[in-house]
Amino acid sequence: MKSARKKIAVLTSYDHPTATILDESGIDIVLVGDSVGNVILGYENTIPVTMDEMLHHTKAVTRAVSNAMVIVDMPFMSYQLNPEQALSNASRFIKEGGANGVKIEGDIYIDSIKKIIEAGIPVMGHLGFTPQLVNQIGGYRVQGRSADEAKAIIEGAKDLEKAGVFCLVLEMVPALLARRISETLSIPVIGIGAGPHCDGQVLVINDILGFSVNGMPKFAKKYTDLHAEIKKAVANYISDVRGGRFPGSEHSF
Ligand code: KIV
């Protein structure tokens, strides 16, 4: 798709009905993001998310998807100890979870990334703002604004490509930096808060649907307002139950 200059559309999904709709709609990649932690499970961020939680959501998604590629986030501390731990956990997402590949944040654990790829598991990289390092970074902020930071991200991107990642997510970096990296790498670069020049875009499904209680990041676009729609539907249901209008004869045996 990159060489054909066809943009790649990626969305997260964490459950079976949503993944079914995404696949039917022709999405290219479904990402079972560890954003499940803050978007679905009520954690403050992605750090507490466990292997078991990721596997649980991965299975729900892969049971629904027959066309798109399904990539799963390796959760915090599931790949940092050593390459053996990383491969053992990555293989669970493929064998038990039914996913097609995994995503790993950062360019520090290159040996683990190589080991996973050598075993035949595609790895998606992730640079720029990496949410699992929010405590170290000190908050949610754009990365690569200074020349030194930008250089480090460019070098990291090249290292990841050399290590064999099939694709790279760039999160919250200036658009011009993302453009430079997209033009430099031969693998596709998927942006999130990284401007319009990337080879594709990824967003969190709940953000585009307006189905979130955490507020919207600046880079996301709301295509509908499910929060308001669900509230309306639930209020109508409560009113019907209390008013004796539900169930009607058509809902009764
Ligand atoms: O966890 C996630 O949802 C991500 C993003 C790139 C959307 O990593």
Characterize the largest beta sheet: strand count, sense, and whether it forms a barrel.
8 strands, parallel, barrel
Strand arrangement in the largest pleated sheet: 1-2-3-4-5-6-7-8
End-to-end Cα distance:
53 Å
In the predicted model, the low-confidence regions spanning at least 5 consecutive residues are: none
Count of alpha and pi helical runs:
10
Backbone shape:
globular
The share of residues in extended strands comes to 15-25%
Pairing-aware structural class of the strands and helices?
Answer: alpha/beta
The rounded Rg comes to 20 Å
List keywords for this structure.
single chain; 253 residues; alpha/beta; 8-stranded parallel barrel; 8 strands; globular; binds 3-methyl-2-oxobutanoic acid
